[in-house]
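Let's do one together. I've listed all components of the complex below, 306 residues spread over two lines.
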Amino acid sequence: MDNILLEESDNSPKVIMDKERAFIEFEGKSYPENTFAFYRPITEWLKRYFKYYADENKATIINFKFLYFNSATTQIIFEILDIFEESGLKNMKIYWFYNKENKNGLEDYEDYSEEFPMLNIEAVVY
Amino acid sequence: MDSGLKLCLNIDGDHIYEFSGKMNEKSMIAGANYIEQLLLEKSVSQNKVQNVFELFIETIQNILNYSSNSVKGDDNKREVNCNCVLSYFTDDNTYILESCNLIHKHQKKIIEEKLNAIRDLDKQALRKLIRKHSRSKEKKHDHGAGLGYILMALKSTLPIEIKFIEFNDKTLKYRQKLVV
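Okay, and this is what the predicted structure of the assembly comes out as:
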């Protein structure tokens, strides 16, 4: 399975999915015309990563650094968090980044962390 | 451009953005970036910039996905004739996003049902509903998650205003007004 490295575009985030480093990151705006088609390879990669590559001896780091996103991305984030939860992996650190002046960022963090308490999502305020 | 789509606005604030013509993904991105830049230059709060930006995107993506006159352009991307205006009112520091596009008549009932279901919900209830919908794997489709109106209601400061106007025997003009 190849790593996924996507450059940021005007309407899609920078995506890093690196199985050797156990590092996953989304950064930027997310409103692709067909959001589900854009994220399908990403969710498929994640399912394979947790099945074949994730290692309890090495923490998997996941950073969500979204700036703006559309409603379809909202559902994709839930789908991604579902995959994390269903993986059963314990050694995983998930960080949700948001601007301290942005109430929406805090509310998004609250919604995701309350919906997935087992994942212990941490907020990173900048 | 179909002149029947022209919006008639009674505005006492500044027109920040006005679009009338063929909207596609490229013009949506250009519009969104322009609006973001302008609001940031005006030192608008990060929260408000995000709400205006995301409401604009949600509105235009709805127009591209659901308009009755949506066609595929040379690059196989959707194109739609529509109108969209973003205005700023200094008196109460509000932004108003108005749009107008054509929809099939059968969509009127669908839109009304969606809006009726959320009309009386407060922000907390809307957030809960988003979580409920997002965890339901049944409602997903190629255009989106079916969350569009819920998110629009969450990010608006007043209820979503809509109006349907007879256009021809199969089509309605759909006007929408969002306040941030």
